[in-house]
Amino acid sequence: MLDVFTVGTTLTVSVVAFAVTYFTTPPLASWLKHRGIVGIDVHKLDGPKIPQMCGLSVIAGLAAGLFSLELVGGHSPDIVAFLGTVAIAGIIGVVDDVRPLSSKLKPALTMLAAVPILLLGTYDPHPIFPLIGAFRLTILYPMLILVAIPVTANAVNMLDVFNGSMSGTLTIVSLTLAGVLAFAGKATAMGLALALSGSLLAFYLFNRYPARVFGGDTGSLACGAAVGALAIIGRVELVTVVALVPYIMNAFYGLASVGRLYERREIKPRPVKLRSDGLLEATTERGAPVTLTRLILAEGPMSEQQIVSVMQVLTALSCALAIFAFFLVEVQ
Amino acid sequence: MRIVALSALAIFVSLSVIFGVSLIMRATIFILPYSMTEFRIVVEVLRVLLALALAYSWLRGGKAIADWYFWRSVSLRGRDES
Description:
The complex is a heterodimer. By secondary structure, chain A is mainly α. In chain A, 65% of the residues lie in helices and 5% in strands.
């Protein structure tokens, strides 16, 4: 476990990331709105136009946090690999926001985000599982990293559907990972998690209901890849999977319902519809994917805020079980 | 009731991830033990394929439960409204 001084100094990383995201988001949003880079908030009756691609400020905050981590904790290839992964995923997100990529090309391109981790060798090919211990995968583990980063990036991207749904839930996940990594005595990895949580928390203040900014695919792919990178660099693979259970449920159930990789835009039968009273309701169309939102709305209509609150409760629950999984691994 | 049902589903999925992964890995090591060092790459590939197959069937099981919950809730809601 890390000492109080190390945790305290590393917390400054979170403060730096928070401050940079908090102060860069409003000017970036104004600039994007001025340039017409906006998205329609389809879950509001008046369909307001919201500046998109503001996830760039999350990446900026994260980068600033990581630079301060270099200053506080010294140089580490983990920091470079993490930043490289986030930057590549962010660039793919920008391309997707400007010119939407196909449902097959996007996951394929996000594989590139795994390259910095592979090149710098910031992984250990012996993932640890509860009740078993380390599982030797010396040859295949690098190939699994190429799959893991697109999976987390796209799973996070698929849940970024409501105001604050991605930023709020992922703040909880990254704070949980920071706590777990502090217990594991991994100062640098904890710093990475704290930078991510600081940046996401600042962004959440603008992205929560009623959203003033959208992160776009830029934000969701970068943050999803960041969580995947954190799992690999911090050697908390299983803990991260458990913390991301609401994301996995949403992504897998959606994909299994449709039977193939899909883009939200290309699915005609919609999973939810907006009612005239402003509430959201699950559709009963058989062809629509059974997503987490549809499961939440199964028993009746809800407001957007209520849906996001349920998502946050489910994430908090899965994070509590992730901590339980961590202690099971530690006992091992 | 809704949050209770969804929380139960999330807890079930999370716990089955924690213990299911361990069971899957144990089964994989049992079928393809570490002692088979002469074909390491083949063993590792088979191990991952076997683990993925088991994980996929487990995910399909979770999906079946989610589907059952969704359509049951929708039909109950329809009955209440009519």
